[in-house]
Amino acid sequence: MPSAKAALIVGAGDATGGAIARRFAREGFAACVTRRSLDKLQPLVAQIEADGGTAHAFACDARKEEEVVALVEQIESTIGPIEVLVFNIGANVPESILDETARKYFKVWEMACFSGFLNGREVARRMVARGRGTIVFTGATASLRGAANFGAFSGAKMALRALAQSMARELGPRGVHVAHVVVDGAIDTEFIRSNFPERYALKDSDGILNPDHIADTYWMLHAQPRDAWTHEIDLRPWSEKF
User: Taking 70 as the threshold, does the pLDDT of residue 1 lie above it?
Assistant: First the structure.
């Protein structure tokens, strides 16, 4: 019988998602990490195992209902109960509304919102049956306001925030903690380093977000006692305007 407690990180990239997986593995969870490409997960799994943790990699298209259903069943039946779900898919793709295509707009919504529903629903069904669990959705500045050229991303992220609110109000009384984290600022990633060197230069003065520090907040949310749950929290560097 599977016995390990599992943390499922959907969208375990090289920065925030990977840091969250490492944080939960350090706390004794079996880190179950997903991306569409299995090969891209191998360095993360190797790092967690080298640090003494347990990790399992899964190739999964989070937009496909049958793949999500199969993923959750596989983890629950072979590894252990999913105690934590972190939904961390980005889909931050800028485009002028004048040039946006229906196909691209829909794809952004699928990635940033619809897949959050699919994964959240499947895991919540298991958590409600057990009367416990934590679901954390990663939000962004776009969750709160729509900037020029980010119509698709803002629409999807605002919808994900509404989904998180609805789930929190429905599932909280049934023992499941649902939280939404607004990450408001540039993160220390290869993308920022390569494409926005002037922003990346702020790293030395703590002007961009450290993925490990973001991960600490996710762990804090899971560890909260249920008499003092946080639903929404925002994270930004000290110098970020808001």
Answer: no
